[in-house]
Structure formats: structure tokens, C-alpha cells
Amino acid sequence: MALSLHVNGQAHPVSADPDTPLLYVLRNELGLKGPKFGCGLGECGACTVLVEGSPVRSCVLPVASFAERVVTTLEGLGDADNPHPLQQAFIDEQAAQCAYCIPGMIMSAQALLSRVPEPSEAQIRQALMANLCGCGTHVRILRAVQRAARAMAGERRV
Amino acid sequence: MSGFSRRRFLQGCSAALVVGFSLVRPVSSLAAQALGADAPDKPIDGEQLDAWLVVRDDGHVVVYSGKVELGTGIETALRQIVAEELGVAFAATSLVQGDTQLTPNQGVTAGSKTIQVGGRQLRRAAATAREALRLRAAEVLGVPGDALQLHDGRASVRERPEQAVTYAELIGGRSFDQPVDRSAPLLEPASYRLVGTSVPRVDIPPKLFGEFSFVQDIRLPGMLHGRVIRPPITGVSALEVKIESIDDSALPEGVQVVRRGAFLGVVAENEWAAIQAARSLKVQWSHDVALPEMERLYDYLEALPARTSRIVDRGELHPQFEAAAQVLEARYEWPYQNHDSIGPSCAVADVRDDEITVWSGTQGPHQLRQVLAALAERPKEAIRVIYAEASGCYGHNGADDVAGDALLMSQAVGRPVRVQWSREDEHGWNPKGPAMRMRLRGALNDAGEVRGWHFRNWTPTHSTRPGPDGGDRALLAGMLIHGMPEFSRHVGGDRNAPIDYRFEHCRVEVNWLKVADTPLRPSALRGLGAVQNCFANESFFDELAHAAGRDPLQMRLQYLDDPRARAVLEAAAERADWQAARRGEQRWREGTASGRGVAYARYENENAYVAVIADVEVSERGVKVTRVTVGHDCGLIINPDGVRNQVEGNVVQAISRTLKEQVVFGREGVTSLEWGAYPLITFAEVPEVDIILIDRPGEPSVGAGEAASAPIPAAIGNAIFDATGLRLRQAPFTRQRLLAVRDA
Amino acid sequence: MAISRPGRLSTGLASLVVLAASTLCAAAAQQEGDESLARGEYLARAGNCLSCHTREGGAPFAGGVPFETPFGMLYSTNITPDRDTGLGQWSDEDFVRALHEGVGRQGEHLYPAFPYTAYTKMSRDDVLAIKRYLDGIEPVAYQPPENRLRFPFNQRATLAVWKLVNFEAGRFQPDPQASDEVNRGAYLSDAVSHCGECHTPRTLTQGLDAQQHYAGATQQGWTAWNITSHARGIGDWSQEKLVRYLATGHLRGEAVAGGPMAEVTSDSLSWLSDADIRAIASYLKQLPAREGTVPARSEIEPASPDPDDPAHGLFVAACESCHYPDDRGLGGPYPSSFPNYSAVRDPAGTNLIRVMLDGLVRGGRADPAFMPAYRDLLTDEQIAELATYIGQRFGGHGTIFSADDVAALRD
Ligand code: FES
Ligand code: FES
After folding, report:
1. Element of type H or E holding A23
2. Helices B529-547 and B640-659, packing angle to 10 deg
3. B528, B568, C59, C125: which sits with the fewest CB atoms below 10 Å from its CB?
4. For the packed helices A85-92 and A138-157, what is the interaxial angle rounded to 10 degrees?
5. Which residues form the signal peptide (chain C) (predicted)?
6. What is the pTM of this model?
7. Under 8 Å between Cβ of B466 and B400
8. For residues C94 and C144, what is the distance between their CA atoms, to the nearest angstrom?
């Protein structure tokens, strides 16, 4: 029986074997490029998506588990015309080198900001703990998340 | 000069590249888009101006670069250089990179040479084009060339700006048909408006919206997914292995097995099926290899037959050591290290009867094309390699190898195949930054002056890239089919082996080892030997300073004449508030001790100058770097924020390499096959980074991609010594090593 | 040398592909039909000679595995038939004496890290079958490091005294009251697989405490659980569950073998016949119940998460991203049912911390489990914070772990 996935505000019928990790379905059936394959072991965070607000490793969890869930990928946050404050902040801080890890970073950061709107630096470091970056962009990533938090706080106050 | 000719290569309109990408558009469709055509006969000979840039009908300038974007921001920086020199708006440029059909061969993108060399080539081309346009405009406007000003895509008469002609009118859609003029005058740096400013990187936004296609994201119609199955002797140098038998009884239906020699892959319609198939295939391999025990690695390396090359031999060493008041000796060791690419290597190949197209994250598309031709047994003209960005590579990772894998699989199944390496493939099989041992001996006189300096190291070449030797055996697939090549190159192991200090009596010897003798397959990793050699040199300098009772910063300044070298040290020292008296006060027993260390290097002894001051905290739990201050001079800065980004990356990655990273191997090869066993720095460990960039508009730009990596390890080691009195001479400086040195 | 490829990952993770120790197969293949040889191989499996006699990166059975014991640092011996460094010159009698009496070839007393206290119960035929098998494997010249023993244990004579108190030689005696199956299970568990070496607590003199047979103990930095029929042991596991666990080391959502038990299941138990596994389970199920220190699942009440707990953020990033422990869970191989796991309920937290440090690789006969080793990806402070949080939220205990607790389990 075909599964139905709810991703970025839309329902998608998918035909994959229910044991397939979500990541492959997002990338190959739905054509999304935000979630990245990095390790397939839950170690690096490149594949992170949000499930009802929580950061989840899509490379290890079977697609069948998501049938009843609301999944958000990088694409679901915003686009060039309407960037999410995190995306804007990463641009403003030029917080990327190769950028391969960045989608996962942004998703983990979004999970944090929705839980803790004005996090301390220590909280940001903690929330990104399990996201690896090989390029050493950490310093900028921290700054970008702080900037986004400020921007979002500003929005709320307006 | 005659008018420009209608560009032949703009006419052939093949939409092949654009059609067929249902989900994503590969990078090089940018080329097609830019040109409005596939331009099969555009010249790529770097002697020809048309190889480098094209002015379209609408005045937009397409720049062709054989150097590629590896996540360092060069797409932006190179456009800045061309836009500045040619006199067009930044936004009126775009860049096509790394396509064997469209871009000149500028060698591999490596060694921090993109701006230094590639930028210079483009600047020359842009200057040639500008002068050609000036001549043409002078003719059209009827004024002498030097009465014209050229900017924003127009040539106008300086006195009467309304009298003007646009570049599009002058040449739009036509070719220059002339060689690059090496003597074309270049703009004065003082007049720069664009170069030297932090233009935001053009590649970042699409990557943040999931719009950008990395090589991992390329999907072709009819494309299948391939996975490789590797022999158990993981990542070894002397790869001799045979497949005895394959049991494919557990394979799901529809999966094809591709085998050539000991190269083995599976191809399936769907990626997950391919992964499962690779796991369920049971293979009996035979091989004959037993690597040395890892604990004996460095003795093993030193005992190998070597070709010694004495690269510095100054003064009379022997009498100086005889007469010395103190002689110090030490040996330093650096382990095998991985490329930390977060995305494992990936490639897509489409092998057809008449042509082969390969999308790859290679650093050298033209070099790769050559070896792929050998692998495919087809003329190189039949192959087109198109660069598609991959995850950061920091040198020769699996990007070339996986292109070979994809090509073989596509050739076998007659459909386009995408091969994605697993994490295990990458950690196990990407070429490693080689392990090295360095031995140092130094002589001090009574006055605490350095009278003798003797450096030796043991290293294989740091490049086994596709290139001059090895043919297709420079690719993993080639090795598995034909066996190991001999690599005759000697690259990188000597990098920064010599020191800049003005020692009268000095000898530097590099002992080159044969690749096949060393346990793991080596190749270029950020900085090549500079990281290892600087670690030894700059740590040992500190040991001498300590023995001489001197402040290590002052002693460095004493032996450095070059004002630019002194300037980076002084800048860092001032910013970090270096206190000579601090040193040696703290001695760690228990609890936490803090310390600071300094190190300096001029990359390759002739490029960027870097001074680093590292602050550390040392406790029973290990070493934590709390702050790093960098003084950095890479000549004329094209894009300050871009340079800063690179330096930050170097610092953080080099800390990771210094404190944590080490490839672990057993008798049959690499056993550290994922991030748990080969850990990377995490957010908990990232220090504050403070960078002082010294801009030198009058000096040529040199690379900033790796220079700052080199002095980091020694700065940290020196800081640990400052905090604890313990000298760590073997990287990585893990907690176990720290405690072992303490308890020794 | 023909090697069948185990998909290798350092942590053995690609034992997602069935692990086949080459030498075993090769040796077995050469002399097919030799029943005692096959039995020897089978018993060597059941006795798990491989795990203790194969060091990381070393040849199978060549020894050199370090054991931190109360006696000092011991290294397992080379039991390949190499003449100089292995068993090449051992006679059958030498070998039988070692297993039955704990006496080496030179007449020296052996340290009980070598479980002759169990092997003494094996039949002479079975011991010799193992010898036959070991004689046929590839000889490897390797001399393990010298033992480093503490006084007074560096005096082999001390061992004689130890043995007097703690060791009784003698073959297994079947219990006439029990079924054949239970007796078979008892023989396998007590004599061959030496389960008690880890699962039975020790007395002051480091002997096995017969009164507390299989009641759980901590060895080498891992806790071996109470496996008696008490509710705090495996009392509420069905026979079927127990069989599945022993054969695979994994019960989805309930239990997973880690540390030494993971080795035992993948190197040993997963190779045994279904009948033998059932026999072991039957034996365990009928053992007298002994009280344990880890509350049963039914005794504890998980707490609801406290989002203000500073460790919560860490938990979300490092754990929840795969385990996703809300009331519905996400299923798949990553359990969200934390309270089911003894490691989580154990107020001592030993295995919980160890599993975070060392990760988990289970690739037995089926149903692989994998968890990354966070040893170098999290700091001691972070692991302590997580262990405390997990214990409080899911384990029904309030132990506060410190970075020092973690550091103590690190090496
Ligand atoms: S790809 Fe999922 S955690 Fe690495
Ligand atoms: S920016 Fe390249 S991995 Fe993070």
C-alpha cells in the first residue's frame, strides 16, 4: 500500500518500501535537495529534518514512521523571495564554506529557536552539538543563529 | 585591428545539457544558459582570449575558469577580479567552471593557487579584453584610446562622457580572435573599487534554499543508482587483491552486478535497493597484505628505504654541534588523516556509444578526463567531464575515484549511473594525508643563540592524483583492475620543511618513501606536508627557546628579517597582548592550567605569512583550545570576508586535526570508518577566533586556502607546554596521549 | 589467504553483513567429515575462545587482549598452533590439565581470567575436540605482552591459595530431577559458555559467589545483568523472547546487547544451534530467583520531560534526533521506549554511560542495531548531563552523574 507523506505543507503519495529511510524518499521521490546524505548512521546531522518541530535524522528512520507526521525540510522554511530569518541570517553572516552541512544546521537551529526563542550561546552550541561541519564554519554558524534569534525576537516585538 | 568575428561557438545550439534534467539542473547548465547554447567549439586553449571570457549580445560577461569552487568562495572572487579589470559591474558577470569542453585547463584547483595563479591568468585575460575594447572604441568614437574611460560595460570619452559605446555594441556575441596579451597593462590597485571589498558570495543563497545542485543532487532521466563493494584490505597502498567468488543469491531482483577485475559494484533502479544489494552480496576475496602494527608505524616508516634529498645545506653543521653548549634532539609524529568531507564522494556518469559525460566534484576536470579515457578505453575527446560542486574536500578525497566507479558502472549497464560512496567507503578509501615522522636536532651556544639546525623527515609523496603517472591506475577502480601503479612524483612532503629563520648553519633533508611501501594510500590533504613539517619546526623552535631561557616570540623576531613576517607576529602579539613573562609560570598537576603558545609560518616559504597565538586550558579531561589569534598577510586581498572565512575554516579544522583526528588501521587496513571512530571537532570545542588581516595592495595576491593550517598544531603544542611543562610531540593531542606523556 | 568479507566498520557496524571469521571456515572446510573437528569448532564458538584470544587488529586466536583484573593487567595467550608462541608444543594432557585444573604447561597455576572454573566442568572429549580444532587453525607467531601483576598476585604461589578457596575441579553432573534440555542448557551455560564469569558476583577473594549464581555483577566497566528468574532479572521474559535475545542480541524496543555481551552474542551465541539456544534459555528460566538492584519496568514511573532542564536541549540534539521518544515514537531500529532498558533503569548508570561512550554494534543473526560511539563527539560533562537527564526522565531514578563518573568509565 502506498504511503502518504506530509512534507512542507503538502501531501505526497510515495511508493517506497516502508523500510526505506526517509532521506532517500525526500531526495529521490520528492526531489528535495535540502536534506543531505552525510553518513547514513545518524552521526553528522546533514540529513536533519523537522518532525513536528523536533530535529530528526532522516537517514536512519524508516519512511513508514512518518506516515502520520508533519515533516519540514529546508525548502519548507523559506525561499529566495521569502527567506526564513535563519536563511537570511546565514546569508548575512556568510555562514557557509562548502555549505553541505548548512541545511542540517539550519534545521537543528530552527528546532532550538522554536523551543527557546532567545538562546544563549551555550544553548546554541548544545543544540548543534550533533551536527558536524568539516569546513570549520562553526564560528559563523554560531553568529548566524544568534542573528536569526535577534531578528525573530524583533519580529515578535513588532 | 580588424573587427571582431561572429562567434562560431555561439551558433551550434544544442540543448542537450538543459533538456533532461527533470528535478535539477546540473551546474554546467549555467554554461548553456549563459551562452544560450552548448558551444561545442568554444576554444579552451588558455593562450586564446576567447577561452577565458565572452561578452554576450546583452553585454553580460561570461567568465570561464578551469579552477573550481570548492566552497572557498572563488566563484565570487574571480568574478570580482574580472569585473574590476574589464570594467563591468559585478552583476554583469557570471562564471562557468571546470568543464573540459568549455573551460581552459588550469591544472588542479589546489595548493591555494586559485587566486594566486588562476586569478592572475583571468586578470591578464580581462586586461587584454579591455585593451582590445579600448582600441575598438577609439576607432568607433574617433578619439585616441587614452582619452577613453572604461567602466560599467561602456567606453566613454573622459571629457565628454555622453559620447560612449557599450561593450555589447563593440563585441557582443562575437569573438575576440586574439591571443592573451601578457603585456597588457593592468589597473593600479589604488584605483580598485570592487577588488578589496567583501562582495557577498553568490553561491551561498541557493545553497541555503535547497535550490543548488551539488553533484550529489544530480538526477538524469533513466538514471540508475550504483554502490561499490570494496575489498577487505581497506585503503592500503599496495592494493593486490582478487575476487575468488561472488554469491549473489541474496540479491533482490533487478539488481545488476558490475565486475571488472577486482572492481565490484551493484546497480539498481532505486538507491535504497542498491544499498541493500551492496550489503547482501557475499564476496570471497583473496589478498596478501599485512600492514605494520599501528603502534610501530613511525619506526616502520623511518626504517623504509628512502630517497634522501637535501633541500637546504648551509654552513658547517658538524663543528657547530661539536662546539655547542646545548644540543637538543626531538622527534615529532603526525598520523594519517582523512579528508573531512561531510558529504561522501559522488559522481554521475552517462556513457554512450558516441560520448561519455561525467559529472564530478573533481579538483582537476582535465586531469580526470585523461585517466577516465584510459579507464574507459576511449579517446579523451570522447569524454566530457563537468565539474559539479561537492562537499568541501580539502584536497584529494574520493571525488576522482568515484567518477571512475560511475563510469565503469554506466559503461556496463548502458544507462546513466549515479554512484554515491557510503560513509565507510569515504573514511576507508579516500586517500589519506600521509603519516610522517620528523627528526630535529638543534645546537645552542652559551649566549642562547641557535648555532645549528638539522631537520629530517620521512614521507611519501603527498600527491597520487590523476596526473603524469599511473594512468587510470591513479583511480581506485583502475588499481582494482590493473594493480598498483608506481608513483614517481615527490610532492608536498618537503613543503615548509625549510624554515624562514636566519640560521647560519642549517640542513634540511627529506627522505622520500615509496608509496607502495607505506601502509595507506597517501595524497594531498590541506597544506600537504606543511602541516606536519611546521608542527615539528615550530615546536622545536619553542624547545630551543625554552632551553635558551628566551621568550619564544622575541626569539622568532630575532631570527626573522622579512618585515612582513615580523608584522604578522607583531600584529597577533599585540592583539593577544602577549606577555613574555607569563611563560613557564604555570605547571599543571591537577585541576586546570592555562597556557599560550605562538607559532609562525610563511606558507611554502614564499606565500602567505601567518602567525598564530593559541590559548589553551589543560586538565585531566584533555586539552581545550579557548582562543586563537591570527596575524595573516596574503598580499593584496580580493575579498576580505572571503579571506576571513577561509582563515576561520583553517583554524577550526586544524584544531580538529591537532586534537582529535587520526586514521586507525589494523593489519588489513583502515578500521576507523565512521565519525565515532574518526571524530571531528564539535561545537563544544570551537574556540573564539580573532583574525587580523594585513592587506598589501602593492603585493601580489597569494593563496589563503591553507596557509593558516600550518602553524596551528605547533601553537597549540607550545601552549600546552606553557600550561603544563609537557611537550606533546605526537599528534593528535588526545586526552590519552596527554596523560601518557604526563605519566611517562 | 581467503577471507570472506565482513562489511567492516571500526565499530564493526557493517556486521550488518554477516560476520564470518575466515580462519574458522577455512579450517573447517579443509577437513570436512571430521565430526570431532566440527564439534571442536562448535564448542570453541560456544566457549567463545575467539573474543578473549583475539586482540583488536590482531590475528584470530593469537591472543594479546588486555584484561584489567583485580590481580593486575593480564594478556590473553596465543592459542594458535604456533610452536614458539602458541600451543604448538602442547600435548593433549597439557591442554586438558589447563582447562580442567587451571595449570599451565610448565606446571604453573593459571590466572582465573581464563575461566577454568567453568571449563573444569566440560567433558574430556569436548575439551579434546576443541584442541583438535585449534590444532588445525593457521599458526600465528605472536608473543602477547607480559602480564603486569600486582603483589601478591605476581607470585604464582598465591594462586594456589586462591584456587584452594575458590576452585573446585570436577566434571559437570547432570541434575536427575531436571529435563535433558535443562541439563544441556546448564552444561552449555555453566561449563562451556561460562556465563557466570560475568553474571555471577564475586566474593571478597574474587571467587564466584555460588549463593548469588547469575544474580548480576559489574565486570570490566560493564554491568552484566541479573539473569535469574526474579522480576528484576529475566523473570518476566517469555521463553520465546529469551531465545530471540540470545540468538540475536536484540529485542527491538526492549533490550539490546552492548559491550562484552554484544561480543558474546555475535562471536558465540549466534552461532549455536536453535536447540542449544533453547536449552540455555530453559536452564535460565528455571534458575532460582535472586533479588537485584535494578528495578523492574513495572516498578518505575517515567517522568515527563522538563523543557527547562538545561540538558533537554542536548538530549534533543544528540539523542532524540534518532530516538524520538514521544508517546508514539518513530519506530525503526531506534527505540524510543527507554524505560524498557535495564541500562536506563539502573541507578548505577554504568551501561548507560558506557553505551554513550562506546556506542553499540549488534549484528548477530538478525536485526542489527547501531548507535554511534560518542566518546569523542561529546564531552564528559555532556555525557554526564545526558545520563542524569535520561535516568530522571525515563529510568525512574534520580542519580546525578558527574563528569568524573564518566571519566572513570572511559578507559
Ligand atoms: S546523514 Fe543522517 S546523520 Fe549523517
Ligand atoms: S560548510 Fe562545509 S561542511 Fe560545513
Report:
1. helix A22-24
2. 70
3. C125
4. 130
5. 1-20
6. 0.91
7. yes
8. 20
Residue bearing cell 570594467: B87
User: Nine-digit cell at C169?
Assistant: 575441579
Q: Could you tell me which of C166, C162, C159 has the C-alpha nearest to residue C117?
A: C166
**pLDDT given for residue C365 in this prediction:** 58
Which residues are within 8 A (CB) of C180 and not within 5 positions of it... i.e. 6 or more apart? none
Verify whether the Cβ–Cβ distance B272 to A24 is below 8 Å.
Answer: yes
> Are the beta carbons of B713 and B731 closer than 8 angstroms?
yes
Residue C351 confidence (pLDDT): 97
Residue B351 and residue B407 in contact, taking contact as beta carbons nearer than 8 Å = yes
Grid cell for residue C216: 548480576
pLDDT, tens digit, 9 for 90 and up, residues C106-154: 999 999 889 999 999 999 999 999 999 999 999 999 999 999 888 777 7
CA B220/CA B19 separation, integer angstroms: 10
Phi, then psi, of B50 in degrees rounded to 5: -65, -20
Residue B532 DSSP symbol: H
B326-351 residues labelled b (16+ CB within 10 A) or e (exposed): ebbebbbbbbbbbbbbbbbbbbbbbb
Bridge partners of B357, per DSSP, are B350, B384
Query: Ligand 1 pocket: which of A44, A102, A131 to mutate (most atoms <8 Å of CB)?
Result: A44
Q: Is the CB of A61 under 6 A from ligand 1?
A: no
In this prediction, residue B21 has a pLDDT band, given cuts at 50, 70 and 90, of very low
The response to whether residue A45 sits with its C-beta less than 6 Å from ligand 1 reads yes
At residue B188, the 3 state secondary structure works out as coil
Calpha distance C115→C197 (Å, rounded): 7
Residue C56 cell numbers, joined: 583488536
C-alpha cell read off for C385:
548531563
Taking the C-alpha atoms of residue B597 and residue B417, their distance in angstroms, rounded to an integer, is 51
Give the mutation target among A26, A47, A56 for probing the ligand 1 site: most ligand atoms within 8 A of CB.
Answer: A47
Q: What is residue C248's three-state secondary structure?
A: helix
How far apart are the C-alpha atoms of B598 and B575, rounded to whole Å? 13
End-to-end CA distance of chain B: 78
d(CA C375, CA C355): 9
Q: How far is the C-alpha of B115 from the C-alpha of B109, rounded, in Å?
A: 10
Q: What separation in Å is there between the alpha carbon of A90 and the centre of ligand 1?
A: 21
Q: Are B134 and B191 in contact (CB under 8 A)?
A: no
Q: How far, in Å, from the CA of B391 to the mean position of ligand 2?
A: 7
Measure the CA–CA gap between C321 and B117, rounded to whole angstroms. 45
Residue whose grid cell is 579557548: B626
Q: What is the ipTM of this complex?
A: 0.90
| Sign of the torsion angle spanned by Cα atoms C388, C380, A140, A22 | negative
Q: Calculate the alpha carbon distances from C167 to C67, C98, C121 in Å.
A: 20, 13, 11
Nearest to C313 by CA among A125, A74, B680: A125
Write out chain B residues lying below 8 Å of A99, CB-based. Answer: 71, 203-204, 207-208, 212
Question: What are the helix (H) ranges across B257-393?
Answer: 271-280, 297-303, 317-323, 365-376
- % of chain A beyond a pLDDT of 70: 99
H/E segment holding residue A121: helix A121-127
**Nearest ligand for residue A132 CA:** 2
Atom of ligand 2 nearest to the CA of B71: 2
